[in-house]
Amino acid sequence: MPRRQLHVSRAAGDPLRTALRELRNAPGIPGDFPPDVLAEAEAAAKAPRLPGRDDTDLPLFTIDPPGSTDLDQAMHLARRADGGYRVHYAIADVAAFVTPSGAVDAEAHRRVLTLYFPDGRVPLHPPVLSEGAASLLPGRPVPALLWRIDLDAYGRRVAAEVRRSLVRSRARLDYATAQRLIDEGTAEEPLALLRDIGRLREELEVERGGVSLNLPQQEIVEAEGSYRLVYRAPRPADAWNAQISLLAGTAAADLMTAAGTGILRTLPTAPDGAVARLRRSALALGVDWPHHVSYAALIRSLDPRLPRHAAFLQDCTTLLRGAGYTVFTDGRLPEHAVHAAVADEYAHCTAPLRRLADRYAGELCVAAVEGREPPEWVRAALAALPGEMADGGRRAGGVERESVDVVEAALLMDRVGEVFTGTVVDVREDDPATGTVHLEDPAVVARLESPGPPLPLGERLDVRLRRAYPGRDKALFAPA
User: Fold this and answer.
1) Quick one: which of 180, 236, 282, 317 is 20 to 30 A from 64 by CA?
2) How far is residue 163's CA from residue 255's CA, in Å, rounded to a whole number?
3) pTM
4) Rounded-to-integer distance, Cα 362 and Cα 349, Å
5) pLDDT digit string (tens) for 16-64?
6) What is the CA radius of gyration of the chain?
7) For residue 52, which of 134, 136, 152, 143 has the smallest C-alpha distance?
8) Closest listed residue to residue 445, CA positions, set 402, 404, 397
9) Buried b (16+ CB within 10 A) or exposed e, 214-224
10) pLDDT in tens, 376-392
11) Are 29 and 22 contacting, i.e. CB atoms less than 8 angstroms apart?
């Protein structure tokens, strides 16, 4: 999809700032960290619980969005003598800094997830930890949970373990840089192998029936005191990096299920009716979906840079509804333990700086490898975690939607009455005169209401902006 930019006008600046301030101060959004939480975090940053192992000689590197400082993961990739591969994957050891039932721990359970706003973030942990002492920033030793995962020549996992260790990252890369170095052939082997391993893991995903949605992202970018919305189609390196995280997540799930206690990320299989609805959507959007082609195979054939394909991929996210967390203890495995999109048992364990459940999954995996019972503080928290994560997920999803709505309205507020061209990407089944339009320029996805005939799903349409004002009126369009 083409990259589009539109800056907030001077006139929209004050209403936008006001709307964003109101959004950050809305009910349910955590404010500043209390003094006792900050004091405990400062003390922990100076005196973490250090591991007995030292792997600081391992030349790890990170891949994150530009400017990121809350770095959860670092990796090192190597070839094995038997033709396979070895993946070292370091995950920030938040438990080395957080005392169970302490002030930081209690506040993390209140926040659950890091929240991202256009003009900042509300972190899960105090920045002295999440962007400082616990982050895998390069050039200094940091406590981590270090995974060692061996793969055969086809990318299949043959062994996995995770232990506490002291690590030191050597380099901080962003996705664009990593992609460029790999494409140019100038990447050193630990980075160059990301393509080899990533592709092998993608082939195995196809084999087991898993699906990764390469959705184009509608991003809010700050520049020179203003904001713009852009579309960014995912790079291959994004997907390869995600495969390393999925690899650790499936290894974590296997360790926990073997030990009999754990927390899984689960997703039920979509009902037949949901897939049938997607087939109707594909037909309307002009996406060719032969009956002999599976859903997973179709997804891999689509190009997210094409508007119709991008619209269909966005529609496919409806099959991800129902994802949640499932806890099991004392060997009583859940009846429905698989994540349908992964097509395997899977756990969130790679983002503990930003997601509460990952700290507990990591602790359970370390205990499983060491052949001991999980700590009591972990077992005591498990039952409540699925509910906490569901509440936090709803809050984070609401913040994301409202943030985009506010910026879209600010970008468009001085263009009410203008005509734009877009694609109708969704039409409500119960009200075919109401739907969603995906503009080509600027990067806006907004509500569309027809005063007359039903909306033409999948067709390009000239639409007129009826209203937009940040914090008061979301962008609303009508057929021109």
Assistant:
1) 317
2) 13
3) 0.89
4) 6
5) 888 888 888 899 999 999 999 999 999 999 999 999 999 999 999 999 9
6) 23
7) 143
8) 404
9) bebebebeeee
10) 999 999 999 999 999 99
11) no
